[in-house]
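User: I'll paste a sequence; please echo it back and then give the predicted structure.

Assistant: Echoing your sequence first, then the prediction.
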Amino acid sequence: MIGIVKTAAAAAVSAALFLGYGGSAPAQPMFSDASINGAYASLFSGSTGGSNPEALSGVGIFVADGAGDLRGHETYTINGAICNAKISGVYVVGANGSGSDSVKFITKDPGCSSGTYTQSLVVAGGGQLVLLNNTKGGQITEEWHLRR
């Protein structure tokens, strides 16, 4: 009798899994430019590219409009200089949560220079993004955290 009960229970579990009960993966969220919307605090560090790489680290505040535009401010150190820069840029997010941005930064501080950079990004959920600099030779990683 115990063998029959065990066999019936195993058959019920197998049928439930076959029909999709208890064994299906949750639906993946759909992402878009609207997935990056609001004010973010950022933290970044790494090294610049080029023939003479320089270490840098910094923080920033970015405001994304949910439609692909961003603006903000960064403070960073590079080669002993403290730099403050205004930033503006654009971003795009695909349905799978990956995307990219392109940012222009302008600074007038001594020992600092203005320029542009691009990054690959991933929407990590919970108001966080993970970014990696794509500028040739640069090795800069960054995290954005939604400010609540």
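The longest helix spans residues 2-18. The chain has one domain: 33-146.
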